[in-house]
Amino acid sequence: MKRLATLALISTLATSAFAHSRVDTTTPENGAVIADVPAEISFNFAADIRLTRVDMTHQDHPSVRLDLGDETSFDRVFTLPLQGMGEGIYGIEWRGLGVDGHAMQGEFTFTVD
Amino acid sequence: MPDIWGIAAIYAKLILYVGLAGSVGLVIIRAVFADLVSPISDRMRVQAVLLAGLALAASVLGFMLRGAALTGGADGMTDPEILGLLWQTPVGDVLVYRMAGAVLIIIGVFIPLSGQWIVLAGGLITLWTFAQIGHVPELETTGVRVLLLLHLLGIAFWIGVLGPLRALSRRPEHIASAATLGHRFGQAASVIVPGLILAGLLMAWLLLGDLRALVATGYGQTLLIKLVLVGAILSLAAANKLRFVPAMQAGDDKAAHHLARSIEIETAVILLVLAATATLTSVLTLPN
């Protein structure tokens, strides 16, 4: 019975849909292939959010935490400077707080080729 | 898949549900069926305090885990800036109400007679917080919030009877009390449970908006799992009410053993229902 309950609990928890991410658009767009490393990235959210953490990954480098600078208030549009790491696939992972207290997160990738 | 902080948040919510429904339920049962549960009344009081303490701890833990979800690391759980940000949102308000409610429950349990009203007030304050943040409040209809509160009170009443009923039915000298408790709870449940189900289905319909979302989205699928599990609980409850309790009233001691076993299984399934609910309310977005 205990084993059955544990199994059922795990399968209940292993759901696929993700939490509260409501990013409208990003620049560069998710999956975009661009020629040059952009000097900055931007987020455009559907509702006000306070960014709390943004990490950048690059295929040849360990993950880097991006400086939020002055972008630390509730807003819909955020622009962060980006330090180029050459050609390759960039991944941006963000976390933020909704006005209602919801933790939100999401990610997008783009390729410099 | 939610990340580790999302999963931890589900467990914290599950503990909160158990602590809260358990403590409020035990106090309601202790007040409503005082004559029947008197042999285990002191034990129930200790359990109610422990469960309220558990709810208090889970509320704080849940708040800190939201901090971790905001930074993606354990540092967020104690980061003053992040927690300060959260504190200013409705999540901070809810933490205050939940802590105050749990403390009122603990204080009320120790005060004879009038204490049960303090407990009830603490329970209502804490249960009402679920109507303050989450998916149901997003509907912005006061009627639905009240419906949610009644749904939660009904669940607390149900969960509260499980422990005492099991404890009494395992003591040969109290089987008659257990049979009467089971019978009287069954009478109350025959009114409360259909209300619970109707309220649950109505809220589910308002939240989903579309039957197709039940199979097409993660939220709907989890809700479906919850409904199937609730169906299993209802079958067990029906067996208890229609078979074991009448047999116990007729003096069948073996039926008491079966009832105790049935309650244990029912408790395990209820835990799964609460886990599914915690998943719905913690990490899943509504289909629309």
UniProtKB/TrEMBL annotation, chain A:
Question: What Gene Ontology molecular function terms does this protein carry?
Answer: copper ion binding
Q: Which GO terms describe its cellular component?
A: periplasmic space
Report what the protein is called. CopC domain-containing protein
Q: Which Gene3D superfamilies match?
A: 2.60.40.1220
- Which GO biological process annotations does it have? response to copper ion
Report keywords, A-Z: Copper, Signal
**Which residues are the signal sequence here?**
1-19
Q: Which residues form the CopC domain?
A: 20-112
Q: Which InterPro entries match?
A: CopC_dom, Cu-Rt/internalin_Ig-like, Ig_E-set
Q: Pfam families per the record?
A: CopC
UniProtKB/TrEMBL annotation, chain B:
Tell me where it resides: Cell membrane
Q: How does it sit in the membrane?
A: Multi-pass membrane protein
GO CC annotation: plasma membrane
Q: Which UniProt keywords apply?
A: Cell membrane, Membrane, Transmembrane, Transmembrane helix
Say which domain of life the source belongs to: Bacteria
Name the predominant localization: membrane
Q: Where are the transmembrane segments?
A: 14-37, 49-74, 94-111, 118-136, 148-168, 188-207, 219-239, 268-286
* Endpoints of the signal sequence: none
**What processes does the entry annotate via GO biological process terms?**
copper ion transport
Entries under Pfam families matching the protein: CopD
Keyword Transmembrane helix listed: yes
The Copper resistance protein D domain extends over: 183-280
The protein here is known as Putative copper resistance protein D
**Organism of derivation:** Shimia abyssi
